[in-house]
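Please, structure for the following, as tokens.
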Amino acid sequence: MSRLPPPIRAGFQPKAPVALPQGGQAGVVLPVVLVILVIMTALVVTQVKRTTVDQRMAANAQENVSMDAAAKAVLGWCEFQIQRSNRGTPGVNTPRSMPAPMPPAAAAWRSGPNWVAFSYTPAAGAPLMPGITFAQCLIEEATDELEGSVSNNDDRGTGGRDCRWRKYRTTAQVQMAAPDFLGNAALNVPAGFRAHFVQGEMRLYSNLTCT
């Protein structure tokens, strides 16, 4: 005997199957994931840019330190030549210099024409560090800035100052290739190069005869 299906109770209706939307995705999961991906991508790009800037700043600081050391080496060389010439060393000529401008005149090293007319270029064998493409000194004869001594009885006609005392102010300039730099026309620094300056003063007692 075949079994009969169970009786259907009054008011009972079978449930219709739930239809999924087109594409098989539902809810807000996809938009949230996309927003998170955009935020993470922005953070990564920002960090990469920051790393690049930090690297450039570190490289620039290292170049500044290197150029400062190179300029000080050139300054020392130029001052040594001044000392040799004032000792009367045979065969050593007095380095080319200019009279120091008196206040309120602008500093001599800030004038481009001074670097052309009075520059003193280190000779072969001077201590130029790697990467330095050009070096020169501007020497100012600043003896008139010295004050006389009230205890000096032998002033030799200089108002209380022994004329054998000399004062020099030396500014050293070095240049290094830097494609991103525009140069400085006022100081005769060409485009594509950066310049660094250091300055020193020295007072010395000369062996040369007073004039």
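The longest helix spans residues 29-86. The first strand starts at residue 98 and ends at 99.
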